């Protein structure tokens, strides 16, 4: 079942985006000459959540909604994978605070690659997202102590995934 904390989080996800982010904000950005928005997404957006993780599923609907607003106002989107299983930097913006353990387990790295593939596939299948997504950040702010070769191999594999699924017209950043 779902814990009380996770139930509250699901309610907040459903209630929250409508309270602080709406179509008017995208319209205002477009009117101000803003051409792109960067949207940070958690690795749990695909609902790949382990039993011992505190995340909840439910963000994809809101990402699609924002993409529709962006398409309506000709604002382009740069998606940014902001978190990874095990945390890539140990800061709150990596999904959990504490030690950066992402690179300590190939299971974490491989799971992140599956998440990138699933996100890219969902973007490719969605009219609004595919029409506005012009960039994809492979992993936000990895810790300087992450194993260099593991990080490089991840970047190469994730880059190949984005190219295979979304094509050469979507920019990719490390």
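^ Assign residues to that structure.
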């Amino acid at each position: 079942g779902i814990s009380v904390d996770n139930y509250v989080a699901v309610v907040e996800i459903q209630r929250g985006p409508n309270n602080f982010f709406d179509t008017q904000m995208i319209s205002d950005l477009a009117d101000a000459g803003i051409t792109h928005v960067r949207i940070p997404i958690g690795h749990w957006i695909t609902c790949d959540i382990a039993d011992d993780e505190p995340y909840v599923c439910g963000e994809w609907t809101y990402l699609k909604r924002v993409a529709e607003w962006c398409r309506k106002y000709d604002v382009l989107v740069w998606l940014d994978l902001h978190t990874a299983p095990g945390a890539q930097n140990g800061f709150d913006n990596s999904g959990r605070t504490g030690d950066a353990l992402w690179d300590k387990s190939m299971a974490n790295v491989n799971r992140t690659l599956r998440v990138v593939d699933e996100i890219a596939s969902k973007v490719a299948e969605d009219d609004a997202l595919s029409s506005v997504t012009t960039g994809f950040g492979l992993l936000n702010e990895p810790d300087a102590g992450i194993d260099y070769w593991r990080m490089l191999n991840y970047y190469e594999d994730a880059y190949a995934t984005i190219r295979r699924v979304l094509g050469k017209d979507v920019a990719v950043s490390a």
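Confidence is low (pLDDT under 50) at residues 1-13.
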